[in-house]
Amino acid sequence: MMEQMYVLSGISRQGFYKAILKSHHDQALWQRMLEMVYEVRKDYPRISARKIHYMLGINEVGINRFEQFVSKQGLTIQKHRSVIRTTHRGAVSFTNMIHGLQINGLNQLWVSDITYFLTSGPTYYLVFILDVYSQRIIGHTASDNMFAVNNLQALSIAMGTRGSTRYDGLIHHSDKGSQYGSNEYVRVLNEAGVHISMAQNCLENPYAERINGIIKNDYLANKKITSLNDLKKALSKAVELYNHCPNGSLGMLSPVDFEQVVTQIPPPESPSLTLYDFNKTKEENSRLGFSRHQTMRITPKKNAVELNTKTTAGYSPGSDYPLESCPPAELSSVSSDHAKLNSVN
Predict the structure, then answer these.
(1) Which of 204-208, 235-239, 278-282 has the largest mean confidence?
(2) What is the share, in percent, of the chain residues with pLDDT greater than 90?
(3) I want to staple 111 with a disulfide (CB 3.0 to 4.6 A). Which of 155, 165, 208, 221 is the partner?
């Protein structure tokens, strides 16, 4: 009977059993991939499927097919929108110095912002300071108020991270919140040789708004936080994970790894980053935006730096960018050494 089936189907006995074995192997492969997605999501609950594919180094399945698989499993991510205002304009104001700014190194542009964090009890507030070039969070605080002392603490941590008290040529960019215009905050920046820049609205401070959304919605949203102490612990962990998470605009290096790599390159050869210029038309900015003209990658086997001239698209403001709080960009994935799918037999 079986021999007749082989003849009618036009396949051999060997081919039939090979097909069965392949089917079992494929089932095991997809099941293993699903388990690995859940494993990654324990630390990165809102990581994108594309970045998970990169992180796991999956060779057996293409990225498009993998994204379709994650979507069919109901594991796609929905974005959140902010509803609470955290900016209260102060009396002190500074000119926006970053329109169309081009940077090519660390400590040339830091951005900062205050955002809220909701719990079942009190509302807490987070402050971040980000080095735009490497997209690394270098200072952060969590508190139950919006006093300027929290911003000063984040600034102190940032300077401690960088290990210096002088930052000649650095621009500190923020919104016009009263905390950033306080006498003490301005004094500290002035004494460190830092230039002060302020945005007119959140559209002009997109990197800070973006990091707010990433940390809150992609790292903290599913955490059980019932106290300020819980939040501080979770925030420190979130910042650590983010800073070691591969980033597409950095050639899939994490912010920390990117900073280590960029120090190996002579400053004149470092990739440049051009910021959006709100003083120009959309057509004029279409050639600029937040785009890195050269992206850096590390060749794993040679551990060598490779410069690619292909431009990677970055932030470009659009009509769907709300003034209350700007939505987070796609989250980069985690850098780790998970087991490969080759272990599936």
Answers:
(1) 235-239
(2) 41
(3) 208
Q: pLDDT by residue (tens digit) across 269-320?
A: 888 888 888 877 777 776 554 444 444 444 433 333 443 433 333 333 433 3
Distance CA 151, CA 308 (A): 37
Task: Give the integer Cα–Cα distance in Å for 289 and 186.
Answer: 29
Task: Print burial letters for 128-162: b (CB count within 10 Å at least 16), e (below 16).
Answer: bbbbbbbbbbbbbbbbeebebebbbebbebbbeeb
Residue 149: which of 115, 188, 123, 118 has the closest Cα? 188
Whether the pLDDT of residue 207 is over 50: the answer is yes
Report the C-alpha gap between 321 and 318 in whole angstroms. Answer: 6
CA distance 49 to 52: 5
Considering just the CA atoms, what is the radius of gyration of the chain in Å?
24
Domain that holds residue 42: 2-78
Q: List all residues 6 or more positions away from 252 whose beta carbon is below 8 Å from its beta carbon.
A: 54, 246, 297, 332
- Calculate helix-pair angle for 255-262, 228-243, nearest 10 degrees: 40
Token readout for 337 is 């050494």
d(CA 267, CA 282): 30
Residues 190 and 301 in one domain: yes
Sign, CA torsion 48/50/55/59: positive
User: How many distinct structural domains can be found in the chain?
Assistant: 2
**Residue 185 is assigned to a structural domain of this protein:** yes
Q: Which helix (H) or strand (E) holds 27?
A: helix 13-43
